[in-house]
Amino acid sequence: MSAHPRELLPLAAAGALEADEQAQVAAHLAECEACAREAAAWGRLATGLSELKAPRPSRTLVARTVEAVEARLAARAERAWNRAALGFLIAFAWTLALLSWVVVDLVAGGLALRLERPLGPTAAWYAAYVVAGWLAAGVAAAFAGRRAQEQGRIA
Amino acid sequence: MDPDRDDAARLRRGDSEGLAGLMQRHQDRLFRYLLRLTGDEAMAEDVFQQTWLQVAERISRYDAARPFAPWLFRVARNLALDQLRRVRPESLEETGETAAPAGTGHDPLASAVAGERSSRLVNAVAALAPLDREVLALRFETELELKQLAHTLGVPLPTAKARLYRALTRLRERLIAYAPAEEWQ
């Protein structure tokens, strides 16, 4: 008779042995009554565990969870849309800013010609124009954000 | 085609129908697992909701080449262990005289219906350490394969088997102590 594989019996009952171990246990149980009784006891325990009836989640819990997740998904979609819109606006603003260089250069050059006197470096005027534009946009964004925050708080 | 992968892809696109499919297939066993692990119905409900919220948030991190269930159970496990550590700073491997989940053993009517034997088994499981309850729930109540069980626990397969062995022997010792004449002998 092979050595008693007592340590393998709980795992055999739990279906957690490799095929070769399972075969080794089965061969031993066929010739060892004591181990067969022990294996049967472990088997009853495993069956009892498999048949335990735990409560299912209540309908209220499931409904509450679905509602919370849908709200989270909606918030995520809104954040994604806001990021996309902001990205587009920034790209658009920079395109306008770069194009306006040409306009500023033309206007400043034309005006200088008409007045027959220099108006200073065009680049400085242009930089001042861009900074003023971004400052105005920044202030507007801050006001809009604050207002949205207040509305959210009220709602 | 794996329905979990389809639904995970839909959820990734922000479609709540994807969530509905995933919940329908996994909510019962997830809740059973959380109930056994935490040993507390209110905590299990809380973690259940947080788990699905995290699934919605982190679905882009889910590797669709792997099964969904172990990933889901791992998210749930991390949340549950965080909660358990907050309310029970001592080791999760120590036993506590945790009450059995409501409606599964202490109610006389439920006990009569379910049978004394089953009731004793539920109480013995509830009195085990959280990590012992966890491995038993994963093996016997969630239908996860062994490899998936090990993945959920974040340990190699032999370690998962060792934990399963330890939990089973501890459970049987308890049952024999409660009712020496019963069939657990």
Describe this protein's structure.
The complex is a heterodimer of chains A (155) and B (185). Chain A is mainly α. Chain A has 2 domains: 6-50, no CATH class; 80-154, no CATH class. Chain A contains 5 helices and no strands. Chain A has helices at residues 9-13, 19-29, 33-50, 59-115, 122-154. The radius of gyration of chain A is 39 Å and the shape is rod-shaped. The relative contact order of chain A is 0.05. The mean pLDDT of chain A is 83. Chain B is mainly alpha-helical and 185 residues long. Chain B folds into 2 domains: 1-89, RNA polymerase sigma factor, region 2, helix turn helix motif (Rna Polymerase Sigma Factor, Chain: A, Orthogonal Bundle), CATH 1.10.1740.10; 115-185, Arc Repressor Mutant, subunit A. The relative contact order of chain B is 0.12. The model of chain B is unreliable at 98-113 (pLDDT under 50). The A-B interface holds A 7, 10-11, 13-14, 16, 41-42, 44-46, 48-57, 61-62, 64-66, 68-70, 72-73, 76-77, 80 and B 14, 16, 19-20, 23, 27-28, 31-32, 35-36, 41, 45, 48-49, 52-53, 55-57, 101-104, 114, 117-118, 121-122, 125, 136, 139-141, 146, 161, 164-165, 168-169, 171-172, 175, 183-185.
Characteristics:
heterodimer, A: 155 residues, mainly alpha, 5 helices, B: 185 residues, Rna Polymerase Sigma Factor, Chain: A, Arc Repressor Mutant, subunit A, 9 helices
Query: What sequence of helices (H) and strands (E) makes up the elements of chain B?
Result: HHHHHHHHH
CATH uppermost class of the largest domain in chain B: Mainly Alpha
Number of helices of chain A: 5
Mean pLDDT of chain B: 84
> How many domains make up the coordinates of chain B?
2
- How many DSSP E strands of chain A? 0
What's the mean pLDDT score of chain A?
A: 83
Helix content bin of chain A = over 70%
Note the quaternary state here: heterodimer
Largest interface, counted by CB within 8 Å of the partner chain's CB: A-B, 34 and 46 residues
Number of domains of chain A: 2
Main sheet specs of chain B: none
- What general form of chain A does the structure show? rod-shaped
- Rg measurement of chain A, Å: 39 Å
Ends apart, CA distance between termini of chain A: 78 Å
Q: Bin the strand percentage of chain B.
A: under 5%
- The structure class of chain A reads mainly alpha
CATH superfamily name of the largest domain in chain B?
RNA polymerase sigma factor, region 2, helix turn helix motif
Structural class of chain B: mainly alpha
Percent helix of chain B, as a range, is over 70%
